[in-house]
């Protein structure tokens, strides 16, 4: 019997190789949306039901995920995001905060519908208390579609969440290879797969084939640096629009209904039709917070630019669109903010 095998072994043979570094652990929280949508046939990209495919099936469609991160899936909800509601925001933000407080989780990905993604993303940006990455993603085509965009968006979102460079940048949105800040991103197309942009300021960076690159930083405070905590109280804030021939009826009805705040999607630089402007000034005198934003879609609203904010008691939303301005106003009012001066400071800060 030849017994020479062990005597000819090299010094390293027979030793246990050093362990490979463990992949990061990323929680994937599914909330529904078109990314989890299904249609009767693969060519149908508009007539489908959103939020019917479960998180395990979504992850199963992307085998490459196992090479990027250790995934911990969780089904938080199964909604079409047009029906997003504040109690679900509370549940989602509280769950993310709890997960990120654990040493076992390195980051979170949220799958969401595209329709209100920018609102949820900004809400989380202001209320998540961790520097660990939180990345939202979505899809414009249902999971059943030919050339569905969800699987690659999901892979890219997990790649971003598992990347060291994503820490401390606030909540991110990974969509169609671009990485956006939750503060800036908006949906800009009803059908195109390149549906999200950050008007004026541009994307933060990009993700492709496992590579993540950031090209700018986020300047305004977010996550751990904000004064906001997620709670179950949501002050009643509504949005109205100004347009040719608008009356004061909507504003008066909202005030009668007891709203705490009104955001105006104004024309141009947040300007407001004279009849509606008078109704809003009357609302301020009854203790309602009024914030001027713009329906234009990019740019910012200058304080005192198109309305005499100081005289009327209005607040300017700066570069926040009406939907994000509403999120900030709700959080500010919930945190006890009152009066145009204090609220303007909040809008100038966040
Ligand atoms: C939704 O927002 O849930 C439906 C639309 C979409 O995700 O694109």
TrEMBL record:
Keywords: Hydrolase. Residues 1-20 are annotated as: Disordered. The keyword Isomerase does not apply. Gene3D superfamilies: 3.40.50.40, L-asparaginase, N-terminal domain. GO terms for molecular function: asparaginase activity. Residues 1-13 have a biased composition (Polar residues). Residues 25-218 form the L-asparaginase N-terminal domain. One of its GO terms (biological process) is asparagine metabolic process. PANTHER family: 60 KDA LYSOPHOSPHOLIPASE, L-ASPARAGINASE. This is L-asparaginase. It comes from Paraburkholderia lacunae.
């Amino acid at each position: 019997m030849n017994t020479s095998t062990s005597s000819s072994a090299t010094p390293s043979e027979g030793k246990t190789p050093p362990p490979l570094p463990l992949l990061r652990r990323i929680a994937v929280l599914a909330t529904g949306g078109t990314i989890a949508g299904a249609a009767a046939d693969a060519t149908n990209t508009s007539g489908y039901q959103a939020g019917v495919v479960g998180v395990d099936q979504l992850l199963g469609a992307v085998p490459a995920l196992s090479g990027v991160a250790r995934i911990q899936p969780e089904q938080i909800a199964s909604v079409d995001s047009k029906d997003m509601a504040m109690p679900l925001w509370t549940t989602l933000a509280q769950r993310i905060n709890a997960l990120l407080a654990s040493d076992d989780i390195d980051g979170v990905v949220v799958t969401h519908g595209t329709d209100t993604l920018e609102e949820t993303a900004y809400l989380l940006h202001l209320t998540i208390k961790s520097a660990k990455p939180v990345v939202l993603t979505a899809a414009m085509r249902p999971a059943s579609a030919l050339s569905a965009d969800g699987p690659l968006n999901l892979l890219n979102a997990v790649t971003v969440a598992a990347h060291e460079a994503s820490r401390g940048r606030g909540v991110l949105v990974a969509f169609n290879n671009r990485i956006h800040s939750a503060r800036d991103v908006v949906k800009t197309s009803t059908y195109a797969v390149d549906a999200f942009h950050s008007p004026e300021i541009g994307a933060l960076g990009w993700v492709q084939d496992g590579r993540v690159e950031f090209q700018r930083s986020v300047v305004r405070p977010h996550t751990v640096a904000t004064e906001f905590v997620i709670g179950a109280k949501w002050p009643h804030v509504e949005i109205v629009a100004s347009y040719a021939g608008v009356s004061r009826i909507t504003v008066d009805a909202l005030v009668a209904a007891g709203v705490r705040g009104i955001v105006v999607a104004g024309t141009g630089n947040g300007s407001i039709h004279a009849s509606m402007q008078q109704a809003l000034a009357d609302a301020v005198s009854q203790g309602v917070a009024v914030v001027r934003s713009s329906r234009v879609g990019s740019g910012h609203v200058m304080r005192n630019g198109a309305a005499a904010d100081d005289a009327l008691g209005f607040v300017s939303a700066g570069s926040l669109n009406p939907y994000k301005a509403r999120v900030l106003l709700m959080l500010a009012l919930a945190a006890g903010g009152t009066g145009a001066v204090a609220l303007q400071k909040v809008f100038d800060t966040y």
